[in-house]
Amino acid sequence: MNTRIADHAENLHPEWETGGQNNETFERQVPDGAARSLPWEHQQRRSERVRSTRPFSISGSTLIEAMVACVIVSLCFTGIYAGAWRSLHLLKSSGEGTSASQLLINLEEQIRTSTWAEITDPTYLSGTVLANSTAYGHLQNVTQTIVVNPYPIPSGYVGSPPIGGQTIEVTSNSSGQVSTPYAGNSQLPSQSAIRVDITLNWNATFNGTPRTQMLSLILSPGGVLGQN
Asked: Would the pTM count as exceeding 0.85?
């Protein structure tokens, strides 16, 4: 191995074999019989080359690790935010559904405690039932509709709820304004039974999705026949 190093050194500096001042200087520095090594200048250049490349590789790997860590942290925060938003959305939707159920019960109780002449009168339905109905809790900007039809539904009535010649329909919009799209033909009081459909429509708070809840009652002059 020492012979290979010496041969390599001779190839790099031929003047070591040709004599001269440089050779004498080298011979004074390396005693006879000692193993020759590469010149000091050559070793220094190799050390400088190693030192100059090593910091760049270390800093490069550190930058990549920092970028990967940032991506992982960002994904974690994104997942936490999405989970929290979804939980809040479900909580809000549940609150709106509960408020809608309370409002339907309120309207149902008003109709069940009314007389037969009152629930077949569009003026009473719009001026008393809907006028006294208010939004509950989380439910805002809701449209309330009451539709009264003969029961069984006569043929030729279309829609949901069905609309025909005897239909009474009263509506309270999201601003609380009450209107009567269909006033009927005054024949409902003579029927043996009627069907009352109460419908609530609103848009979900978070994504604006249209939502609906509906309750149907079948009434007779003697009281409630059934509830659907």
From this structure: no
Q: Are residues 171 and 220 in the same domain?
A: yes
What CA–CA distance (Å, rounded) separates 225 from 43? 107
Which domain, by its residues, includes 190?
93-227
Say how many domains are in the chain: 2
Cα angle 139-141-143, degrees, rounded to a multiple of 5: 100
The pair of structure tokens assigned to 35 is: 């193993």
Question: What Å distances lie between residue 154 and 46, 48, 94, 120, 199, CA to CA?
Answer: 103, 101, 37, 17, 21
194-203 and 168-172 beta bridge pairing: unpaired
Lookup result for tokens 């860590």:
69
Could you tell me if 208 and 107 lie in one domain?
Answer: yes
Q: Are 204 and 211 in contact (CB under 8 A)?
A: yes
Query: Which tens digits make up the pLDDT trace of 109-135?
Result: 999 888 999 999 999 999 999 988 766
Per the domain annotation, does 151 fall within a domain? yes
